[in-house]
């Protein structure tokens, strides 16, 4: 048995762009694949990394470039097509391997990209979220820890860059080497049941409440409830006034809601298909938290700037009467 620790970086379409309007790669288009092979005796073996030249979202998002350090010119010069990258990766993986990622998103994005290129996805099995095994074998927490937090808890000093596919895969492999993966895989179903439904992504500091809602007919009904009947102050349970929803990747949304007696609270939600309806995973943050400050900054940048009407050359300025 061998474990393939997988991590990826992906580009995201700018809101309003052609790719965004068409719903191409809704979570993102992969631009980098990194992986580390971990043997059954928990020995870190060889590594794999490759850059992928995007086909559908060719303009590299500036935020992605800043976060990962990857440049658009670098992708054009060094990147290969996605089918070629996947072919090389599968050859490197070999047979009889179990995939592990830090979080739920990587495999979701991988499967979306495989579908975009009409490539099979059944080979990405079996697959497990290492966060769930980590929680089950440490303090039993249900929230997902950031990779940095898990390294700190295990007193592992990072030696590779963060937000680099191979760097993150390598650090995840170091964490997995401290875990009983065989037992973790066997008990994975129980770990998933302990994980509160739908809270995909590490909580930010200042989170004061979590809750899951089910049974909404569609997105409109779900978001209407989150801004209306279910938008209650955590202290007095009175209805709060919801601010503007700000959209985030992965069907996530946030708004700043106000209680007349207790001030502001940040509401973060994630929508997911749940049978025939919509499930909402809701996080509530203090208004003074860093998450709330990030919302205020995002809301300010999203507000349209006023455009001054240009006077035609033929128009003469109107002079005030004396």
Strand count: 10
| Beta-strand share of residues | 15-25%
The neighbouring-strand order within the major sheet is 3-2-1-4-5
What is the fourth-level CATH superfamily of the largest domain?
A: Ribonuclease H-like superfamily/Ribonuclease H
- Kindly name the structural category: alpha+beta
Tally of structural domains: 2
Q: Average pLDDT value?
A: 86
Order of helices and strands: EHEEHHHEHEHHHHHEHEEEEH
What would you say the CATH architecture of the largest domain is?
2-Layer Sandwich
**What would you call the shape?**
globular
- Write down the oligomeric state: single chain
| Poorly predicted tracts of residues | 196-202
CATH topology of the largest domain: Nucleotidyltransferase, domain 5
Helix content: 25-40%
Biggest sheet: strands, sense, closure?
5 strands, mixed
CATH class of the largest domain: Alpha Beta
Radius of gyration over all CA atoms, rounded: 23 Å
Distance between the termini: 92 Å
- If helices are DSSP runs of H or I spanning 4 or more residues, what is the number of helices? 12
InterPro entries: 3-5_Exoribonuclease, ERI-1_3'hExo-like, Ribonucl_H, RNaseH-like_sf, RNaseH_sf
Pfam families: RNase_T
Keywords: Exonuclease, Hydrolase, Nuclease
GO molecular function, one term: 3'-5'-RNA exonuclease activity
Give me a quick take on this structure:
By secondary structure, the protein is an alpha+beta fold.
Main attributes of the structure:
322 residues; alpha+beta; Nucleotidyltransferase, domain 5; TATA-Binding Protein; 2 domains; five-stranded mixed beta sheet; five-stranded antiparallel beta sheet; globular
């Amino acid at each position: 048995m061998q474990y393939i620790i997988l991590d990826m970086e992906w580009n995201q379409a700018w809101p309003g762009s052609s790719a965004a309007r068409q719903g191409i790669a809704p979570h993102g288009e992969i631009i980098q694949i990194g992986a580390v092979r971990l043997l059954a005796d928990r020995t870190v073996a060889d590594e794999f990394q490759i850059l992928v030249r995007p086909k559908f979202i060719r303009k590299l998002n500036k935020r992605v470039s800043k976060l990962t350090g990857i440049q658009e010119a670098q992708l054009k010069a060094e990147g290969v097509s996605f089918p070629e990258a996947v072919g090389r990766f599968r050859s490197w993986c070999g047979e009889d391997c179990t995939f592990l990622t830090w979080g739920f998103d990587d495999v979701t994005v991988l499967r979306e990209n495989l579908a975009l290129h009409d490539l099979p996805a059944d080979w990405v099995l079996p697959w497990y979220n290492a966060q769930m095994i980590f929680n089950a074998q440490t303090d039993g927490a249900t929230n997902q820890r950031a990779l940095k937090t898990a390294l700190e808890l295990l007193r592992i000093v990072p030696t590779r860059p963060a937000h680099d596919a191979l760097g993150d895969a390598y650090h995840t492999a170091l964490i997995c080497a401290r875990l009983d993966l065989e037992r973790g895989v066997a008990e994975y179903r129980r770990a998933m049941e302990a994980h509160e439904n739908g809270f995909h992504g590490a909580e930010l500091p200042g989170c004061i409440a979590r809750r899951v809602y089910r049974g909404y007919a569609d997105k409109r009904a779900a978001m209407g409830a989150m801004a209306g009947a279910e938008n209650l102050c955590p202290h007095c349970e009175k209805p709060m006034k919801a601010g503007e929803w700000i959209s985030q990747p992965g069907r996530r949304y946030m708004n700043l809601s106000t209680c007349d007696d207790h001030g502001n609270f940040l509401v973060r939600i994630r929508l997911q298909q749940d049978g025939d309806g919509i499930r909402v995973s809701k996080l509530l943050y203090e208004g003074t938290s860093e998450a709330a400050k990030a919302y205020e900054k995002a809301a300010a940048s999203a507000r349209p700037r006023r455009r001054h009407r240009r006077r035609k050359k033929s128009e003469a300025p109107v002079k005030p009467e004396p």
